[in-house]
């Protein structure tokens, strides 16, 4: 690809007309930061119309994460709503709710027997069709700490030079199931996903990477080359200007798009227990266009 064409591609991707929170007609939306995160108020997810659900998906896909406060959801409410976004999926190897098998109970405290996944990551990238959306509904929150931080992968891609954008075109990264709680349920083979994926709703490009233990090889590169490129990109994706940090409140309902974001918990809540109900949607196989 010639340099002029790479520049043109990068400019087109960054300057295309985007769906703004101000374009929302059926939802009351406000920004949480300049480009990452929206807050949706004045509506119960259990009573959303089809138009509102469609608009919500577009807002999440543009701004990476949506916060909907004052949503006291029972497990069946969360499952019913999430199924309207995309088909529900479940991460292999995670702990299922005894009554609701497609709901994952995420419980963390000082007595946890397994360490949490630390560092920014995208959910379940080690399957051929990773989740599109992840949702969390808090059941027990700490009085301090325990935030969740999100980073915008569109911004990470658009901040790269045209030369680097061009170099990433066509590259694939190997994703694996390291640190999974029940490895016997993990896929037997790692999967390869594009380094840059195109979002099916927004048309924008985002770097698709996850924590180093689960993304450790670049197709066609020598080990040292892979290591240096992946370390550079992973650090590059964590610029503070692209972050939104969520402080949990009772009855918050948070939805994020794994195709254009990474996230991490901040495990600074000491001895206090933190319990979340997680439900995810199955997405498409990542692609670049």
Automatic annotation (TrEMBL):
UniProt record similarity statement: Belongs to the TfdA dioxygenase family.
Record keyword Metal-binding present: yes
Originating organism: OM182 bacterium
Gene3D superfamilies tied to this protein: Clavaminate synthase-like
TauD/TfdA-like domain: residues covered: 33-280
Annotated InterPro entries: AtsK-like, TauD-like_sf, TauD/TfdA-like
GO cellular component: cytoplasm
Keywords of the record: Dioxygenase, Iron, Metal-binding, Oxidoreductase
Source domain of life: Bacteria
One MF term in the entry's GO annotations: 2-oxoglutarate-dependent dioxygenase activity
Protein's UniProt name: TauD/TfdA family dioxygenase
